[in-house]
Amino acid sequence: MSSATPEETSARARAAEAGLGLRERKKLRTRQAIRAAARRLIDERGYDSTTVEQIAAAAEVSPSTVFRYFRNKEQIILRDEAYAFSGAELLRARPADEPPLPALRAAVSATVRATYEEFNAEYRWRMELVREVPALRAQMHEGQDKAVEVLTAALAERAGPRADRLALRVMVGAMLGGLHQVVLEWGDQNQEGDLPEMFDRALAVLEGGLTPDQPRKAAG
């Protein structure tokens, strides 16, 4: 499977560090070192044969340091929840008069494309592991539940106090569930094709069966 070139990795690291203070840069570099070590070892030994202790040694940190940054081995592989908060910020930035469904679709699509394009090779590697490792799939579902909470809260802020929160939650859950199925199909097709474009097509299917009008609680 393809991977980022050293130049791309270096440019990505510089961009990530831009605007951070010294302490935050050190934390970011530690996280990056742990994740890079994990990838090297997993590529060499396989996921199940790689331990947190081995990852710590390869990253030249202690196991306790690894656990300060990541709850468990699965979290080293999977992206943190930043993408959910990024999607929420994009959602809040959409035009105030835009109905919930189109606003959510635009925000989630933008997040998917940005993640896919910025971390293309890394994303492909992670998704391949997710398909192979049950523990990673379970952790991914947990992260998806958190994303539903974050995006539903952002959507409810836009929709106002009269919005039906259950309807909004179902809308978000359907969209993120659709994304999950797209990722599975993409993997079944050997990760060929443009993943964001596939997601856009899936959203068109969902949108065709969902009303774009702002959900409202029944009067009375």
UniProtKB/TrEMBL annotation:
InterPro entries (UniProt xref): Homeodomain-like_sf, HTH-type_TetR-like_transc_reg, HTH_TetR, MftR_C
PROSITE patterns: HTH_TETR_2 (PS50977)
Alphabetical UniProt keywords: DNA-binding, Transcription, Transcription regulation
Record feature DNA-binding region, as residue ranges: 51-70
GO MF terms, alphabetically ordered: DNA-binding transcription factor activity; transcription cis-regulatory region binding
Annotated HTH tetR-type domain residues: 28-88
Protein name stated in the entry: NapR3
